[in-house]
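Q: Convert this sequence to structure tokens.
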Amino acid sequence: MSSAFVVLLFDLMARLPLRVLHFVGAMLGWATYWLSGKYSARMRDNLALYTKGQGNSDLHKVLKGCIAETGKSITELPWVWQRPVAEVLANVRHCYGREHFDAARQNGKGLVVLTPHLGCFEIIGLYVAAEMPVTCMYSTPKRAWMDEVIRGGRQRGQMYLARADIGGVRTLLKALKRGEAIGLLPDQVPAHGEGEWVDYFGRPAYTMTLAGRLREASGASMLLSYVVRRPKGDGYDLHFSPLELVADIPVTRQINAALEAIIRTCPEQYLWSYNRYKAPPGSMPAEEKKELK
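A:
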């Protein structure tokens, strides 16, 4: 598959109204769920951690919503990446906690924006970039054509990408020291040696330490941000909230606790199908470490 074909396909899909793309996405979500046993099993297993102690009825209720919302997260990408930025941002109906973003932007010490895999998180980078330069960490996909498509969709305006390697970390730190913003996905599994095992919905998950290290090295502010899809393709609601860290508690533990609180406000739109609990190559799972002691 070539990048030219995908760009053409994305361009055609981007011409459709958002409500149509979300309708198609919901059907795609259900088709994927029924056709992929591994995918559906992981989604159910991860959701079971969230609904533990709440009964099967709660699990099935959230599961139904999650199946549809995960499909929407795919079909809305052409619309977000191909439509003019001004048009995309015009569909952000509300920005809750905007005052926290403004305060962090004006302090001149840089801003770390932590965005979980919830809702249409792709919009956050565009929103921040409309106000200030923002550099987001980016894991290069294996297929070259996909890399071209993703970069074309994300690198617009004042939004830049830094590869997920040591050079990219230096790029992020330089951006913070210039008083700019950086974006990280704190619930993404880092490479071996770049995280630590911390509970996430009651199960140890390998959690990145980079956010805390960058904040400590730069003195930057730290915000949590997420975007929720509104019903029937009626745009999005964006949320910002400050993360006030306590000195005696590990930063990774505080970040995971804050993410859990956010996800509980809209569990249907979280990406439960993501393999959050995998062990990176060379990293021993927390359970095995306990057995060796």
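The CA atoms of residues 165 and 261 lie 29 Å apart.
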